[in-house]
Amino acid sequence: ALADGRDEFLANGNEWRTQPLWGIGLAQVVNPQAGFLHDGRARTLEEAILWHGGEAQPAADRYRQMSAEDRQALIDFLNSL
Fold first, then answer.
1. pTM beyond 0.90, yes or no
2. Which residues have a Cβ under 8 Å from the Cβ of 40 and sit 6 or more positions away?
3. Which of 14, 46, 71, 78 has its CA 20 to 30 A from that of 60?
4. Domain total for the chain?
5. Domain for residue 16, yes or no?
């Protein structure tokens, strides 16, 4: 796994692997206890978006600024993938 301090192929041990979004809407259908983020600690897609920091902080900030309707539309879109 990445970010475990061990080099793996072209990635160093301090890098994170970003999980593909394809099929993310089925994750909790297949496994109701599935979580999001690299360690599964986010229980919902919204938590996963809001808990991003670092280089993804601007995206989380923009999500916070969206209307409730637009936030729901984004979550619905992600669930449709």
1. no
2. 34
3. 14
4. 1
5. no
